[in-house]
Design a protein that fits this description.
heterodimer, A: alpha+beta, eight-stranded antiparallel barrel, 8 helices, globular, B: mainly alpha, two-stranded antiparallel sheet, 24 helices, 10 strands
């Protein structure tokens, strides 16, 4: 069995690459331990002047305002989520439901994210639809993160909210969600014009330290590649610039649980990482476009969970998603089928173990839609 | 382990010598060491340890019967907990603990899941007493638990408990449970009581009874009471002959239970009960998780057993070997990947890892450190006391640590800070003994993680032992490896551990002889064990002094 490990500041195996003039560089391994929607939060939730989203149950009460109407609806359709005209589930058939309360969206001009369409004004191109750009908190213009408009006023997704905590715990506690990232061929940790960035599904629990709130992952722990899932072995290129890894846009798919233990898949089109490398990890952004159909099929599984606790309603999210889609314009319909998004990432350095030659020598090279960003 | 050809020769010789009176002559035919006179000590009474208790229950009833247990700790004496068991009493609080554990075990033995294969007979009526079946059970398990056959009166007493409770509770098995529980809280089970008898070959002298020899043998080799076969051999008087003893020794040394016995010994010798209360500052050492604490102890024991038993290696090589075992919990501390996830994997540490040998394993480094920093002094003291059997005096109670712990101290490394002690004549005496050893381990922080610098200053890990200088942990390991005190210390500890008391001056010559034989065997511990447990010296006992109360078999 081939045995390979990656480590940054410790002894590393250096294997001569016959095809390369210089020996391969170091390999750095990471696992994501924080991976949440980048939602810029202002004091007093000023980004949401109309207030925060209300729950399905509140929508039901707004839809059927008297107790008698509510009882009739429940008697006829069985459950308060079944708010369609013929009792259809509002999460499974959101397009059939017109919300009685207007959807509460982000009104701020500031958002976390990157410029994905290359424009400064958000005008539609052949590939994108017209949209309003953001300025990032540091003042950089041209930021695309329309997902922020959709989810930015959800109490559940804000820091400490039910959903963000729930997803955070899933990421840390469920090996199914373990994403391993390797940066290989690194010759200079500060500036390297071309490094290889590989993604794998991991298979191990995280070892946590004894800190508060469940602790933090212990750096330099071993994480094995789950090579039962070859479809999640992917590779692209990037560069390191002033200690920041920047990857070329590429379409990626990662294993990710939906709701509690429903296996699903996270897909991001034109995904780019921008991660500052630190002593024991990395932190920064993952940006790209979500195919709206794929994203919704995953997201709607939340409706099978605890929608009243989640403080959101499916039809409102669905409608906003369609409304703010800004990427992957369908030439036939003229509508966009993807939405720009940004994630805040924290990664911990780990020792990635390859149990299989396949994971090392033959990763699936994912479609790179452009060069590494400047 | 004896090589097969040597063992065959030894067995042949023993067969020929079977009727010769027992002496201290060598068991090997090749040489005839001097016969040594060993007076021995009085028979011992030893309190059962947690591990011995668990082994006893597992070997008698099965591994899934005993609950986790923590009885009051023994007092470490002469470097070993095992010697503390000789003077351990049982307090009222401890009795409660023993009773609670006994009740759980007894209830598990008679529960519907276990009774079919552990009880061996069935009552005529389950709701009534059945003395016939109870007698079978009590006689069988009583013998194993008390390490001797129960008298008829004893059997009847325990059967009466079973019968009485069965009638009260209308349940045969509940009654039997009460009776088994009573056996388990009896001093006959909780204490290993050695008995002696007149030596028929030399009526002026006493000797251990067969049962007592079986206990001494079994506690050393298996850390457990004798099993049925050993008890039978003892009851038939076979342990009083060389041939009979040798047969049992060979069987026991070949048993997987010997690993358990050696583990217990090294756990004791290395003072690993310290792991039970070991804690580090989680902010400073986030990788030192509870899982890592348990794994560090296990790593060293695995390494030792693998090296000494599976590989039949030279004991001294434990101080230099790079072959060890890792699991995922230790991976962050060693910054080395582990292929098998949560499982243990054999691992050859890289030559440039800066580690090799027991002294650079997390267990030794972390145990002998402070919660938030390393301690060259503790480590140096531990090297001397644990591995070289030297006694380092305790520090005076009024040590001023303020300069050492001053964050604003101009010295960034422990070596610089310890210079304060070296210049203070009150401290210097002991620090000269400890620090040159401990400072060689300064490339490892308080959790045992490797480091090159402290306070941004390059660490100087040089040191010396008995005039031998070295520059780092590797050099220290080599110096211990080459030190004659290291194997001598092992012989001393192992022998005392087996006896249950510190050997007296009358045994000094015999210990020196064992040192020589250990060296002649290439420092193989299995051969050393064989030498010890087949020697008459190991079982030698003194006659009771006037007025002295000793256990006796009544003969």
């Amino acid at each position: 069995m081939h045995f390979h490990h990656s480590l940054a500041l410790v002894a590393t195996l250096f294997l001569l690459d016959a095809a390369s003039a210089q020996p391969p560089g170091k390999t750095l391994g990471f696992t994501f331990d924080e991976w949440g929607y980048a939602l810029y939060e202002m004091p007093g939730a000023a980004e949401c002047p109309a207030g925060l989203q209300i729950s399905d149950l509140d929508m039901f009460r707004a839809q059927y305002q008297t107790e008698e109407e509510q009882n009739q609806a429940l008697s006829k359709h069985g459950f308060y989520l079944n708010r369609g005209p013929n009792g259809e589930s509002d999460w499974l058939y959101p397009q059939l439901v017109t919300e009685p309360v207007v959807y509460r969206e982000v009104q701020s001009k500031i958002a976390i994210g990157k410029n994905l369409d290359g424009t400064t004004d958000g005008k539609g191109t052949g590939k994108t639809c017209a949209h309003e750009k953001f300025v990032d908190p540091q003042g950089h213009p041209g930021v695309d993160n329309q997902m922020y408009r959709v989810l930015g006023c959800h109490a559940g997704w804000k820091k400490g909210g039910f959903l963000s905590d729930f997803v955070h715990n899933l990421l840390r506690n469920e090996p199914y969600d373990r994403l391993l990232v390797e940066i290989s061929n690194v010759h200079d940790l500060q500036n390297d014009p071309d490094v290889t960035v590989s993604f794998y599904k991991g298979r191990d629990q995280l070892i946590m330290d004894g800190g508060a709130n469940g602790g933090k992952p212990v750096p330099w722990q071993t994480q094995r590649i789950d090579d039962r899932f070859p479809e999640y072995i992917q590779s692209t290129h990037g560069r390191i610039e002033n200690g920041v890894l920047k990857t070329a846009p590429a379409n990626v798919r990662f294993a990710q649980l939906q709701v509690i233990r429903v296996p699903g898949e996270f897909r991001l089109l034109d995904m780019q990482l921008e991660l500052r490398l630190t002593e024991n990890g990395a932190e920064g952004l993952m940006v790209g476009y979500h195919d709206t159909d794929n994203w919704w099929k995953n997201y709607r599984k939340l409706g099978l969970g605890a929608p009243s606790v989640e403080l959101q309603s499916g039809p409102g999210v669905y409608a906003a998603l369609q409304r703010y889609a800004d990427g992957r314009r369908d030439e036939t319909t003229g509508k966009c089928t993807a939405i720009s998004a940004a994630y805040q990432i924290h990664a911990t350095s780990v020792l990635v173990v390859h149990n299989n030659d396949q994971t090392k020598s033959n990763p699936q090279v994912i479609a790179a839609s452009g060069p590494a960003p400047k | 382990m004896l090589k097969p050809c040597f063992r065959a020769a030894a067995i042949l010789m023993l067969a020929l010598l079977a009727k010769v009176p027992v002496t201290l002559a060598a068991t090997e035919a090749a040489s005839t060491p001097p016969e040594l006179s060993v007076e021995g000590g009085p028979p011992t009474v030893r309190l059962i340890s947690d591990a011995q208790y668990l082994n006893a229950i597992a070997y008698i009833f099965g591994p899934d019967v005993a609950p986790s247990l923590h009885f009051p700790p023994l007092r470490r004496t002469e470097g070993l907990l095992a010697l503390g068991s000789k003077s351990a009493g049982v307090t009222a609080g401890a009795v409660q603990a023993y009773e609670a554990v006994a009740q759980t075990i007894a209830a598990n033995v008679v529960d519907p899941h276990h009774r079919s294969f552990l009880i061996g007979c069935m009552p005529k009526v389950e709701t009534k007493r059945d003395d016939r079946c109870a007698t079978q059970v009590i006689a069988r398990y009583g013998r194993l638990l008390f390490r001797r056959p129960l008298s008829k009166a004893e059997v009847k007493a325990y059967v009466d408990i079973a019968g009485s409770d069965a009638e009260t509770l209308n349940d045969f098995y509940s009654g039997l449970s009460s009776s088994l529980s009573a056996l388990l809280v009896s001093p006959e089970f909780l204490y290993f009581v050695e008995t002696e008898e007149r030596d028929p070959h030399n009526p002026k002298n006493m000797r251990l009874t067969g049962q007592a020899k079986a206990m001494r043998l079994s506690l050393l080799l298996w850390n457990a009471p004798p099993d049925e076969e050993l008890l039978e051999a003892a009851e038939r008087g076979q342990l009083q002959t060389r041939e009979g003893l040798s047969k049992q020794v060979d069987r026991m040394l070949a048993s997987p239970r010997m690993e358990s016995g050696l583990r217990a010994f090294f756990d004791d010798m290395f003072i690993f009960e310290g792991f039970n209360a070991l804690a580090k500052d989680a902010i400073i050492y986030p990788a030192f998780t509870q899982g890592a604490v348990e794994a560090a102890r296990e790593q060293t024991l695995r390494t030792v057993i693998d090296h000494l038993v599976a590989r039949n290696g030279d004991y001294r090589d434990l101080f230099t070997t790079r072959h060890t075992f890792l699991n995922s919990q230790l991976s962050p501390l060693y910054k080395l990947p582990v292929e098998q996830g949560g499982d243990w994997v054999a691992y050859d540490l890289p030559a440039d890892a800066g580690r090799g040998g027991l002294l650079s394993e997390i267990s030794f480094l972390a145990l002998n450190s402070h919660p938030g920093r390393s301690s060259p002094t503790r480590r140096g003291r531990a090297v001397r006391e644990i591995f070289l059997c030297q006694k380092v005096p305790d520090p005076p109670p009024n040590v001023d640590f303020s300069k050492f712990e001053d964050a604003a101290h101009s010295a960034k490394t422990a070596r610089g800070r310890l210079a304060e002690h070296a210049t203070n004549p009150v401290c210097a005496g002991c620090h000269k003994i400890t620090d040159p050893l401990g400072l060689a381990l300064e490339n490892f922080d308080g959790a045992g993680e490797f480091r090159r610098t402290e306070g941004n200053e390059l660490i100087d890990a040089s040191g010396s032992l008995n005039g031998v200088s070295f520059s780092d942990a590797d050099g220290l390991g080599k110096a211990i490896h080459d030190s004659p005190e290291a194997p001598r210390c092992l012989v001393q500890r192992l022998y005392a551990y087996g006896l249950g008391y510190k050997p007296g001056t009358d045994q000094r010559a015999w210990l020196e002889e064992l040192d020589k034989r250990f060296a002649a065997h290439g420092y193989r511990i299995v051969d050393l064990l064989h030498e010890i447990v087949t020697s008459p010296a190991f079982y030698a006992v003194t006659a009771p002094k006037s007025g002295e109360v000793v256990a006796s078999n009544g003969s």
